[in-house]
Amino acid sequence: MDNIIEQARAIGKAIQKDERYLKTQLALQAADEDKELQDLIGQYNLKRMSIQNEMQKPERDEEKLRAYQTELNGLYETIMKNPRMIAYNEARKDFDLLLRRVDAIISQSANGVDPDTADYQESSCSGNCGSCSGCH
């Protein structure tokens, strides 16, 4: 087998042993087992579908849409204040940073940057690439 592929698989195994991965998985499991949280997420998804259905009607009811949106926003706030959701989001943030660093090192190395100095750098990207050469 290709040596680079073997090394990529080794990185995958190392990621799954990393404390940030394990913490994320435990937080996800705790959130999945929280019946109240799951009920709120279900209500949120149903409300979002109600908004989509109303938006597709030829003569949509703007008052109904505003009421749905208010309810959706309230559900979102409640979900995000749930301690298990907070724990999951914090764990996921740390894990995502790890993945961004690994990806940056590999990508930059593939573009000729020294692998010992390549790393992820937070950017203040505005999304408008017209005046920037930073991503590429």
Report the order of strands and helices: HHHHH
Query: Which structural class is indicated by helix and strand composition?
Result: mainly alpha
User: How many strands in all?
Assistant: 0
Percentage of residues in strands: under 5%
Largest sheet: none
Explain what you see.
This protein has 136 residues and is mainly alpha-helical. It has a domain of 76 residues. Helices cover 74% and strands 0% of the residues. It is built from 5 helices and no strands. The relative contact order is 0.10. The model has no long low-confidence stretch (mean pLDDT 93).
Based on the model shown, name its key terms.
5 helices; mainly alpha
Task: Describe how the helices and strands are arranged.
Layout: H1 3-17, H2 19-33, H3 35-56, H4 62-81, H5 83-110
Helix pairs in contact: 2-5, 3-4
Question: Outline of this structure?
Answer:
The chain has 136 residues and is mainly alpha-helical.
